[in-house]
Amino acid sequence: MPKASQLPIEDVSKILNLKLWVFTESDGLFLHFSFDLDCIEDMLPALLAIARNYVPYITLPISIAIGIIGYNLEGLISDRYTPTKKLSIEEERLERKLKEMENSDLTTESLKSKSFVPKTIFDRKTSP
């Protein structure tokens, strides 16, 4: 502390017990704050009420910072090359259907033969 005359300006807040002292010296003006730590217990409910009301404004910048950090870490860690598929899903399905059609018999029976109609009533409901 510089040795100079101390001029107490005023008690800024009785709740905070915050005092401002001005020191004058030939080099310039010096400011000194004294703060009583016992008043934090009195201020804690008020600070929590303020924080509760302004939670979105407090958490949004924090979440943005965490998101930016996570995005950049993921870019450093992960592999950026993802190979593309040679064929689309629709083309793969069409090829699979063509292969199934090549292996199956495509001839159909004539409707005149009526093979789809059972000859007797007992043939209608056969158990599998």
UniProtKB/TrEMBL annotation:
Pfam families the record matches: UPF0767 (PF15990)
Keywords, alphabetical: Membrane, Transmembrane, Transmembrane helix
Membrane topology per record: Single-pass membrane protein
Spans through the membrane: 54-73
A single Gene Ontology CC term: membrane
Subcellular location per the Swiss-Prot or TrEMBL entry: Membrane
Family: Belongs to the SMIM12 family.
Name of the protein: Uncharacterized protein
